[in-house]
Amino acid sequence: MPELPEVDALVADLRRRLDGRAIVKLHVPQFSALKTFDPPLHALEGTLVDGVSRHGKFLDIEASGLHLVIHLARAGWIRWRDSMPPVPPKPSTKSTLAVRVVLDDDSGIDITEAGTKKSLAVHVVRDPQDVPGIASLGPDPLTDDFTVDVLAGILSDAGGKQLKGVLRHQGTIAGIGNAYSDEILHAARMSPFKPSNGLSPDEVEVLWQAIRTTLFDAVKRADGVAASELKGEKKSNMAVHGRTGLPCPVCGDTVREVSFADSSLQYCATCQTGGKPLADRRMSKLLK
């Protein structure tokens, strides 16, 4: 799933490519991806791109006062095309293409989604705040407003909720997903199951530093990387996420996993839980 650093890099890449271009046509082979009807999609045709920005993990292409807002969800992506096929795409359950945006020089972007679980969402709105997911976002962790005190308030308000879930909740902190929450907690040397209200002031400071450092470093690494290479760049720089069974780059212990119904987390027991493995019922059943 694209998270804040990858979406930030996509914004920079698209801003460079789309600046001053006109949108001449939009195609929606996967109509379920379109979540709004007013303004209609065709209202964007003939508009001039004014800018590209980010709200958490949402991409926002502004064109002549309208906004094409894209949430890539778990398996969505943006693919640039220097030239578009002459034949418009047709609806197909076998195709990954959800939306195609054609520009005035015949270049454009394909918004795609792999897999069978369709969660990608495209909105056409007059104001980004009209998108419920944006209106309910928590603070952006890369802004100057995201201070240690702000994080302390968030953790206090979360009560006994586990740190992993609090970091991932978009209404609490915008832009952090499954991968970077694993990386942040590893950098902070904290258990993903640690209660949010159980942190001392010094630990809140450590977690805040881990959030800022992990995300800023990832944004810096992704800067200028082509969209087609962003996923590989992200994966190659993970310390624990997606590295189950491999050695921790800090201490050498084996990276462990806790599996859930539709996701998993990775952690290092030596670095994060005092050497104690976390309970993983699903993996335990498989090992019997």
UniProtKB/TrEMBL annotation:
Domain FPG-type: 239-273
Record flagged with keyword Hydrolase: yes
Transmembrane segments annotated in the record for this chain: none
Gene Ontology biological process terms in this record: base-excision repair
Required co-factors: Zn(2+)
PANTHER family: FORMAMIDOPYRIMIDINE-DNA GLYCOSYLASE
Name recorded for this polypeptide: Formamidopyrimidine-DNA glycosylase
Species, as recorded: Nocardioides baekrokdamisoli
